[in-house]
Amino acid sequence: MKDIGEQHFTQEINQVLFRVYNQFWPHQESAARVLAAELLMKSHPTVETIGEIISSLSIQEQPEISTLVLKKLYNSMQESSTVRSCVTDLLKNTTFGNYYNLAQNGSSSSVINELQATYDANVTYGINVEMRPTGMLKRTSFDLSMLGNGENAHLMSMSLFVEGFGLTDEEQKENPEEHSAGMQLSILGVHLRPYIFFTGTGELMGLIWSGAGNNPTPAVQANFLIIDQSHTVVLQNGIHVDLNLKGALSADISGSVEVSMWNKNAHAVVKNKGSLLVNGFCRVDTSFVESHVDFGMGGGSVLDMVVDLDFAKKPMAMCLQVEQPPFIFRHNIRKTETIPGTQLLIKTVKRRSMYFPGKSFNLFRKNSDSCRKMLQPKKHKSFW
To answer: Cα–Cα–Cα angle for 228, 231, 235, nearest 5°?
Structure first.
């Protein structure tokens, strides 16, 4: 919506979005329906718009979509005071605030939490998980955004999608899909070409027996120049001050997957590595004194997204984990002062290191319950 502009979402566009969400055309993709509902929540929401979305949740033809739309509505309440006031007024009426609308039994979920908070900006992460009615994972995404000064900057979005697995009998008859899986990335608002892991059961079995997916496979390796600034400031006394600032961001995203046909489980890891380096100097050069200040700051961090699947029983069990190992951020400042024509030299160095402990992120309740069952140590029965 930020790229298109809110002014283009007119009443006619909202009517088309309602048709997409209400599945006016047959065989509407679930991702398109959820996206249409999310756009309606963000494009000048009104009580009538939010009320129609809440009323549609009582239709349980596709419970996973209804559950995901309800979670999206909760997220919009956190971000927008307009949506929050509309929902608060509507839930006072039992027509909207009832069990059939708000008690969804699907496994899909969507959460937005804070990743890192600073004085100037906050970095938030969002997790979206869409499941099939059979309990099979369909799509999951991880989003990073930066909020500051009333602006929302999209940093990165990574999504994993699975097609053709866990289809119901009706879905196989109406819209059969070929077995495939892949990853889609978006960095700084630029969408990259999807990375396809396999297409068809033949390629899937080839990957399983060869073990090619066990080793980390790089998906994106890139360097970004985020700051490049140089200018001169003339002070009131006529002294010139030169300022130069450069910053670079390095990203490395890779993934690996292990599938065991004997134990009927799978383990996938997506590593998001990032490093930030900012260097600059400030110089005052006159005929009687020279002052030079160099400063640099930087650090590297890793964000791991781990997915465990157990398809030995039905419904399939899934555990999604997001972890961040500990890392150190360093900030160094060096000041040099000299007087031309003399041997006077003054150097001052200050070093500062900030340690950030490792942590794991709480996603949603059903995922925590599933992880507790899958990851807890199993008790082996005694032979005696």
So the answer is: 150
- At residue 5, the pLDDT reads 63
Question: How far apart are alpha carbons 43 and 26 in whole angstroms?
Answer: 25
Q: Among 132-141, 146-155, 273-282, which range has the highest average pLDDT?
A: 273-282
184 — pLDDT class (breaks 50, 70, 90): confident
| SS3 state of residue 75 | helix
DSSP code string of 82-124: HHHHHHHHHHTSTTTSSHHHH----S-EEEEEEEEE-SS-EEE
Q: What is the rounded distance in angstroms from the CA atom of residue 202 to the CA atom of residue 248?
A: 42
Dihedral, CA of residue 175, residue 181, residue 187 and residue 191, to nearest 10? -40
Question: 11-21 vs 30-42: helix axis angle to the nearest 10?
Answer: 140
- Tally Cβ neighbours within 10 Å of residue 266: 19
CA–CA distance from 71 to each of 18, 126, 231, 282, 317 (Å)? 18, 12, 48, 49, 21
What confidence tens digit (pLDDT) does each residue in 187-243 have? Answer: 777 788 887 777 877 777 777 777 666 777 777 788 888 888 888 888 888 888 888
Q: What is the DSSP letter of 6?
A: G
Phi/psi for 211 (5° steps) reads 70, 25
Contact 18, 52 (CB under 8 A): yes
Closest CA to 333 of 319, 356, 349, 317: 349
In whole angstroms, give the CA distance from residue 249 to residue 228: 12
Whose tokens are 């490093």? That residue is 275
Q: Which residues pair with 255 in a beta bridge?
A: 217, 270
Task: Note whether 289 and 98 are within 8 A (CB).
Answer: no
Whether 147 contacts 113, CB under 8 Å: no
Burial class of residue 149 (count of CB atoms within 10 Å of its CB; 0-12, 13-18, 19+): exposed
How many residues are there in the chain?
384
Take residue 311 and report the two structure tokens written for it.
């398809």
**Half-sphere exposure for 312 (CA within 13 Å, toward CB):** 11
DSSP state of 212: G
Q: What are residue 264's phi and psi, to 5 degrees? A: 55, 55
Dist. CA 191–CA 302, nearest whole Å:
21
DSSP H helices in the chain: 11-21, 30-42, 47-56, 63-79, 81-91, 99-102, 169-174, 201-210, 365-375
